[in-house]
Amino acid sequence: MSSAPSVLLLIPAYNEEHRIEPVLREYAAYFRAHHAGRFQLVVVLNGCRDNTLGVVNRVATEFPEISALNFPAPIGKGGALIEGLRLAPNTDLIGYVDADGATPPGAFHELARRCAAGEADCMIGSRWLPGSVLVQSQTRLRRFVSRCFHLIVEWLFWLGIKDTQCPAKVMRRGAAEKIHGALRIADLAFDVNLLVALRRADFTVCEVPVEWADKLGSKVTANLWRSALVMFLSVVRLRLVYSPFYRLLAPLRPLETWVYLTLLRAPAPRPGSESKLG
Ligand SMILES: Nc1nc2c(ncn2[C@@H]2O[C@H](COP(=O)(O)OP(=O)(O)O)[C@@H](O)[C@H]2O)c(=O)[nH]1
Ligand SMILES: [Mg+2]
Question: Domains along the chain?
Fold first, then answer.
């Protein structure tokens, strides 16, 4: 890869009209000043009930490297990233961060730089490794729930990754293209789906300490118990997807969709062909 790879940054966004504008401006300005290769920033929205799309389009008139992909259906953060990752063939590196600016552009750029240098096929930020800089950490309860989730994920998948949920990840085009068919989880457990798919396809994942500043207005913290339950169900589901019994459970799929959509008001997992799993 050349010394200045093209970078495509996805930002999933749901009702972010109050948080996203400074983040878009900071990222665009930073990459103009510090990155010699092509930089594209694509905000992937779905079902927003506010003016997030208007805000993104307004900033995009000043920064043509910014654009929006809007899906009216409630496809969830994971669903939005699955759609966004379809753009991988247009770039060398593709990654994502949250719309709230918790990951500063310099921290994301560092992940991209190390990925381009060949350190790993996918570089991920971690708030739980020594050396991470937490300008503002999450609430105590959120951190406790996060650690319980981590233990469950570790018990189910043995990933050896301390912070699967840090939304600062970047990977090589080839890795994103190869594992795209194995991405199913539309809710916030999407990151686990991504990491398991990468590992199963023998791509290398490297976790590095990251700079992080937690922001007010988190939708996860506002619905912590429901989000935690949905994520728990999704990782158990993912474990089953990779088990030999999964096909036997096919008749239960309509029930599963009903539980997600109606009972939990969460995006249902996306259907996929089992043969595409890594
Ligand atoms: N497209 C899309 N983005 C979402 C959805 N839910 C959350 N997000 C985005 O996912 C990111 C993480 O949400 P956030 O509230 O910051 O959660 P936290 O950082 O984990 O506390 C933000 O950029 C949200 O706008 C969704 O249903 N659809
Ligand atoms: Mg966030």
Answer: 7-276 (3.90.550.10)
